[in-house]
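Subject: complex prediction, re-run

Hi both,

The earlier run crashed halfway through, so I resubmitted it with identical inputs.
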Amino acid sequence: MAVTRIATSSLKSLNKYDSFLGGNAYYVPPSFESIATTTVGAGGSSTVSFSSIPSTYKHLQIRGLSRATAGGIGAFFIQFNSDTGTNYADHRIEGNGATAYTDRNTSAIRALSGLQAGSTTGANIFGGSVVDVLDYQNTSKYKTIRALSGIDNNGSGNIAFGSGLWMSTSAVTSITLIPENTAFAQYSSFALYGIKA
Amino acid sequence: MPAARYFIASTTVGAGGASSIDFTSIPSTYTDLTIKYSLRSSSTTDDYLGVKLSLNSSTTSFTIRQLYGTGTTASSANYSTNNPSGYMQAGLTTASTFASGDIYIPNYLVSQNKFFSTDSVAENNAATANFLSLLAGLWSNTAAITSISLTPATGNFVQYSTAVLYGIKNS
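This time it finished cleanly. Structure:
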């Protein structure tokens, strides 16, 4: 390959940089990254699971839009690392447009994570939810979730703010979401994000 | 994908605990700020208690509206101090449990009063020793926020307590 020498005197504008950045700012990647997304297909699904969760993040967040194949406005639950023992607790405040109330479960086999639509709610209506799992790798802490969810059914609906506890110091490596009523309906979708620190 | 957020700083409390968690020299390159915290107080006389927010070392000019729930009731309250700016676990609850909270501060650079919201939970495997809190806060100060401190209402933050500060850009 021929190499041609160019005289600097022939260049109209010449800047010399000591860095390959050439005067450009450093690129700083966002700390919020998609890990996996699951969308339920035709026929529904009895669970939605995320496995082999990377250990490269500080926090996890699940964002969902979901509906069950049975019942009315209902809930979905969370389990970690396939633990089905009575190692969970949850509490929530909930409102239905007229009344605010509370509910709880202790020493349960799963923690309530959010609200979602069901088969008797309006067609094509889904519940929205955001679930935070902070410090999911810390082996000196039980794992606490914090969740905000709601569903508006064009005339009815519920909103809930809740917490859940998994009484284990194990690092979270897998998450299973379980609907209260039968199965997640088609087009239900859950996205798992990792948040770096 | 949610709005892009960028890591600014993180603090994890070591053995011996800490009386505060401080973020200083906050860059002015973001639109909003958010703190995700996992905290527990050393207080042995409480199930849960408040986290106090200080902005630019100021602990005054705070007003707060709160919606909260325990295991049995949902209620509302208001405050004219920075306590509580959020909630956290304390020593009477199950060992190894830590509160989960998120403080959101929009438009932290504008020369207008500053607002913040906090959603926090102190979860516990018990019927009533539990606290859920949604807060809307106002700091009546027009200075750009350059530092943030979190302090427990009582006691110290215990080992493994952690808080992470993120910046959020609107573009």
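The interface with chain B takes residues 28, 30-32, 34, 58-59, 63, 89-93, 95, 100-102, 104, 106-107, 132, 134-135, 138, 140-142, 144-146, 148, 161-165, 167, 169, 193, 195-197 of chain A (CB under 8 Å).

- K.
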